[in-house]
Amino acid sequence: xxxxxxxxxxxPDWPCQVKTPGSFDWERxxxxxxxxLVPARxxxxxxxxxxxxxxxxxxxIQVEQEIxxxxxxxxxxxxxxxxxxxxxxxxxxxxxLYAAEVLQLQHxxxxxxxxxxxxxEHGSAR
Length: 126
Fold this sequence. Notes:
The chain starts with 25 loop residues before the first helix and ends in a 5-residue tail after the last helix. With 126 residues, it is mainly alpha-helical. The protein has helices spanning 26-35, 46-50, 52-80, 88-121.
């Protein structure tokens, strides 16, 4: 069976775990990837599994909250961590960790938006 050409452009933020929109089983790969982004209990809700755009919406909200948490941890690290008795080298390493996490989460958020757009364009919003 020949698959129709898709108008969805794959962005640089497209997750490598998700097949190209329009290809065989791509929505299933999108759902698998999106389920990894939400707490496990949400992955079992039938409505989220039947309607991948709902799962994508929840994943976007989840990732946005994680970005807020990582930014708060980064912003408050210099003031809070010394009070915990941590050595300066541990504090510096932790600050770098939080900064890297913010960047990674921002990339994931862009990836979720790309997948959501593709799901919407390919009729998964039913």
